[in-house]
Amino acid sequence: MKKSTRNTAIEALRFFFMVQICLLHYNSCGNFMKAGYLGVEFYFLLSGIFIYKNATKSNSTCGIVEYTYNKISKFYTQYILSLLVIYLVVMPKVIMSIHENGLVHEILRFISQCLILQETGIYPKTYNSPTWFFSVLIWGGALVYGLTKYWPKVSIRVIFPLIAIMFLSYSFNYGKISNLEQWGMNVFIPMTLARGICEIAIGTVIGYLIFNYLDIIKRYRSYLNVATLISTILYLFIVFDRAQDAQYVFILFPIIITSAFVEGSWLNSLFRNDIWNKLGSLSFSMFLIHISLVWSLTKPILYDNFPHSLLFLIYIITLIPFAMLLSRTATYVNKHLPKLISKSDDPLSADQNRGG
User: Fold this and answer.
1) How far is CA 129 from the centre of its chain?
2) Least crowded by CB within 10 Å, which of 133, 136, 270, 327?
3) CA distance linking residue 211 with residue 190, whole number of Å
4) Residues 6+ apart with CB under 8 A from 264
5) CB of 18 within 8 A of CB of 302?
6) CA distance 214 to 209
């Protein structure tokens, strides 16, 4: 069996931060996790890091459209399946919306979700509300990828650092608690989209530093180990008690992520096992399915009969199995659906089946 070339430490971080996001969205967790949403910041930064790596490959011929298509196609079947699941789970709400807003409105909202346009400030909220994050990763990431690929020097040296300065200045100086978690519009700019684009751009600069200066960074591995430990502790304090200091993750996350790339760092060494590749690969499936589980387990009829702690335990236990089910169902559909379509499109297939 061919050994995976994926970075197991990065995969472990992907898994842990996705668990954090999934816990945040369960009602009972909101009281003790003050800034659990910061897992989103990790993913935006990590996306920028890999955008830099892919966009600057010397042999890469992948343009913006092809890159975006490839990114969507990896997860689109899972995305559509999870969309169908959430509509089944919240069908009473769907019916109520049809009565209030009309069938055409609900159809158009469904189409906007199929096109991954929801929750970016352009289209209204949806039932699987966390998927705004996927929309921003796709379309915001496409913009950052294009700038990085076609204007790498000016983007990395001028545009993205300028974006970082303006975004961080805004984040540190305006708003109070959780001011990174902005919704709605600022003049004509969707705040979710602006947040994603800025953070992906910052991640691209981090990627530039990691992939071009990794050998130099390795020389200071012992200092990096200490900085990573301190950053991890401080991050936990922010998540559980210091939401007003959320902006400091833009100092802490680059240290933690860089440590995962450095061979021999304690973080890189701790998560060596291939199990993290498997768990990391389930991260997106967990993200897509977890709100359906939340909706299912927090219906009033269940609240009346079961203690909240038991429902939360069921949520934790079933999250990974349902994510695996979603992933494997998507794999099955991807494997067999093209065959069914090709048979239905073949004008000779029916005659052949009849012996004609």
Assistant:
1) 13
2) 270
3) 32
4) 218, 221
5) no
6) 7
DSSP for residue 204: H
Amino acid code (one letter) for 281:
S
CB 284 within 8 A of CB 75: yes
Tell me which residue of 74, 122, 38, 93 sits closest to 291, measured CA to CA. Answer: 93
Q: For residue 105, give the amino acid letter.
A: H
Distance CA 95, CA 101 (A): 10
Residue where the block lists tokens 């789970």: 89
Q: How would you classify residue 183: left for phi > 0, otherwise alpha for psi between -120 and 50, otherwise beta? A: beta
CA angle 141, 145, 148 (to 5 degrees): 140
Answer for the pair 288, 78: CB distance below 8 angstroms, yes or no: yes
Pairwise CA distance, residues 166 & 146, whole Å: 21
Is 171:158 a contact under the CB 8 Å cutoff?
no
220: CB partners within 8 A, 6+ apart: none
How far is Cα 229 from Cα 221, in angstroms, rounded to an integer? 12
Q: How far apart are CA 230 and CA 219, in angstroms?
A: 19
SS3 state of residue 308: helix
Alpha carbon distance 92, 100 (integer Å): 12
Q: Give the separation between CA 316 and CA 19, rounded to whole angstroms.
A: 9
DSSP letter at 186 equals: E
Instruction: Indicate the helix (H) or strand (E) that contains 189.
Output: strand 189-190
**Which residue has 């009281």 as its token pair?**
31
Query: pLDDT tens-digit profile of 2-35?
Result: 556 789 999 999 999 999 999 988 865 446 777 8
Structure pTM?
0.89
pLDDT band at residue 330 under the 50/70/90 scheme? very high
